[in-house]
Amino acid sequence: MKLSKEDIELFYKLYHSLLAYVNRKFNIIKGINSPRDFMGCSIEEINKVRDRLYKHPELIDSFVAENPLNLSSDELKIISSWKNFVRGRFLIFRYLKKYTIFLEPSEPPKAYGVLALTSTFEEMVGPYLPIMVEAALLPFNNKIIYDSILISYRITFGSSIRRSFNEAYQEAKSRFGIITSLPFLPEKVEQSDADKLRFYLRSQHNREMYREEIKALIDGNPDLLTLYHQEMGKIHARTYGKRLREIGLRKGWFAILEGITIASGATKDEVEKVLERLLPPEKKKFVYIFQLKQK
To answer: Comparing C-alpha atoms, which of 252, 236, 233, 240 is closest to residue 291?
Structure first.
């Protein structure tokens, strides 16, 4: 997804105004004195100026204070917000309807929802993801955009590293959600113990990596034990469902407790009646019941 045409024009007006100011301060490119002068500049030339800007972000405050082009207060507010830029290497990880996911696979990983400008990111880097890029992300009216320069690295990733990227993306979503505005303050994002547990149980890799954290959560909050059994039941149900179809079963209801199928029947009601006879009441809440459907 891209910014609207009006917002794109506004962005370039403000961004080139700021770059022209930086250029006048440091005399980086000869003959560039106004925002319009940047229209004929190469990416390499613009990159020299933007590098100086990001190394000296205090120039943003100076520009806003001086307001050399008599910009409106709303325009100055946008420029001032650019102090909260995020610059570095990202993975363009996924194209979604609302935005493109820029994954920062650091520790902890973060996933940003970024809007494009005149061309979509898919038009710029192609349909095959992930792609490693170098970019600067900027806030813009409660959205995140990039600053118009994108440097891509044509690196081929193997299946193992792709899995690690996907795990980083899942962790980022679980911890922080998709970040769609800047500045992002992780300390203001409160993740519930239940959400943490779901993330820790999501994959075999997570269950092994976070074994101690899983135990600590359950020990510290016994109410999470039910959630633990239900989530593990879902995991086992996928495995058992596949195996049951392999041996010729096509439908039915099954109950799982601690990784073991303890009851089955043609209907859910039949299974629940069996469980009533088999289990003490305190154990029933730990049972996961699933339906095997014909595919």
So the answer is: 252
How, if at all, do strands 131-140 and 151-153 pair? antiparallel
Question: Which helix (H) or strand (E) is 214 found in, with range?
Answer: helix 211-220
Which of 273, 295, 294 has the alpha carbon at shortest distance from 284? 273
Summarised one tens digit per residue, pLDDT across range 53-93 is: 999 999 999 999 999 999 999 999 999 999 999 999 999 99
* β-strand pairing of 110-114 with 178-179: parallel
Element counts in the chain: helices (H) and strands (E): 12, 10
- 121, 155, 288 from 190: Cα distances, Å: 31, 35, 29
| Sign of the dihedral through C-alpha 158, 160, 163, 165 | negative
DSSP-derived 3-state class of residue 56 = coil
Instruction: Give backbone dihedrals phi and psi of 114, rounded to 5 degrees, phi first.
Output: -115, 135
* Gyration radius (Cα) of the chain, Å: 26
pLDDT tier at 51, thresholds 50, 70, 90: very high
Phi/psi of residue 237, nearest 5 degrees: -65, -35
| CA–CA gap between residue 101 and residue 179 (Å, rounded) | 9
Neighbours of 111 (CB within 10 A): 26
* 202 neighbors 128 (Cβ within 8 angstroms): no
CA distance 11 to 9: 5
Dmax of the chain from CA atoms?
88
Helix, strand or coil, per DSSP, at residue 74: helix
Other CB atoms within a 10 A radius of the CB of residue 50 amount to 20
The beta strands (E) that lie in 186-239 are given as none
